[in-house]
């Protein structure tokens, strides 16, 4: 696979709606415009295709409105699929639905024992995995994932309910496997003091995002190491990324934000083994 090429799995928002509230972004009182959500989702998919990436889709299941947030469906590192196990019963059936897709497509799968919400809380950067906890993923899952992949897993405590998944507060910009040139951006106040210190130690040159970009979920972005797809309202962040040499692509996912997710939430990265390029 050429360097920089990515393999994504996405789920169309056919059944997307806000029928329950499990994060502070969700509000049942305003109806969701499914047609608009679909148009925005298609634009996101087409952006990846235009960049030359591979996008596969999973069949959406009626009654699972949050299934559009594919990043939560599993975590795939070195071709090994670690299944999701959801905190809330409303999303429980998504775990088996995604796991079945991977099993049907010939992947080696591992059924998780502990609660974890996929790439929402497990982000690969270089040889290590950054793992969020505090709202959704159980810290016991961090150890389970470390054993499965044989990788260092760094636990980071999240403290602000608006940033309930790690991928709402931190984006992996570059993460070539085993090489030192990793790059991340994050919003420090979303993390406990100890986690902030850990991040400072690990990534002294990280890009620190401000509140105005964080509150539009600007950090819920997707990077292929060169291009960063993000909310066009995250203007400060986009400027800072361009200064660092990234090409930014604004894709409006405002209707999907109604469920508490942005571009990254809708995008699951399939990392194959061996992974010469270390897809972030
Ligand atoms: N409504 C979903 C939830 O609260 C949104 C998930 C967003 N996904 C993400 N990767 N942060 O579970």
Itemize the secondary structure elements and their pairings.
Elements: E1 7-10, H1 34-50, E2 54-57, E3 74-77, E4 80-83, H2 94-104, E5 108-110, E6 122-125, E7 128-133, H3 139-149, E8 153-157, E9 170-175, E10 182-186, H4 193-202, E11 207-208, H5 211-214, E12 222-223, E13 227-230, H6 235-243, E14 247-250, E15 268-269
Parallel strand pairs: 1-2, 4-5, 7-8, 10-11, 13-14
Antiparallel strand pairs: 1-15, 3-4, 6-7, 9-10, 12-13
Percent range for β-strand residues: 15-25%
Give the name of the CATH architecture.
5-stranded Propeller
Q: Which hetero compounds are present in the coordinates?
A: arginine
In round numbers, the mean pLDDT is 95
- Looking at CATH, which topology would you report? L-arginine/glycine Amidinotransferase, Chain A
CATH class: Alpha Beta
H/E element order: EHEEEHEEEHEEEHEHEEHEE
Using the alpha-carbon principal axes, give the shape. Answer: globular
Helical run tally: 6
Protein name: N-dimethylarginine dimethylaminohydrolase
Organism: Cellulosimicrobium arenosum
């Amino acid at each position: 696979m050429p360097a920089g090429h990515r393999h994504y799995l996405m789920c169309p928002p056919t059944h997307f709606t806000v029928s329950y509230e499990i994060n502070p972004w969700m509000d049942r009182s305003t109806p969701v415009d499914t047609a608009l959500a679909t148009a925005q989702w298609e634009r996101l998919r087409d952006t990846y295709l235009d960049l030359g990436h591979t996008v596969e889709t999973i069949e959406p299941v009626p009654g699972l409105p949050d299934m559009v947030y594919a990043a939560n469906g599993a975590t795939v590192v070195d071709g090994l699929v670690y299944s999701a196990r959801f905190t809330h019963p409303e999303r429980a059936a998504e775990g088996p639905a995604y796991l079945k897709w991977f099993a049907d497509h010939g992947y080696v799968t591992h059924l998780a024992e502990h609660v974890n919400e996929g790439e929402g809380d497990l982000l690969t950067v270089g040889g290590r995995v950054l793992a969020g906890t505090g709202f959704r993923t159980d810290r016991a899952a961090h150890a389970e994932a470390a054993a499965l992949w044989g990788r260092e897993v760094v636990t980071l405590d999240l403290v602000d309910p608006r940033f309930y998944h790690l991928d709402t507060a931190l984006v992996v910009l570059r993460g070539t496997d085993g090489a030192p040139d990793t790059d991340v951006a994050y919003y420090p106040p979303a993390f406990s003091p100890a986690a902030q210190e850990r991040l400072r130690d690990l990534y002294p040159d990280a890009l620190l995002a401000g509140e105005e970009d964080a509150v539009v979920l600007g950090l819920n972005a997707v990077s292929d190491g060169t291009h960063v797809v993000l909310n066009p309202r995250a203007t400060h962040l986009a400027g800072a990324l361009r200064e660092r040499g990234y090409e930014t692509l604004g894709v409006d996912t405002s209707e999907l934000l109604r469920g508490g997710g942005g571009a990254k939430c809708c995008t699951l990265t399939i990392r194959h083994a061996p992974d010469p390029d270390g897809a972030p």
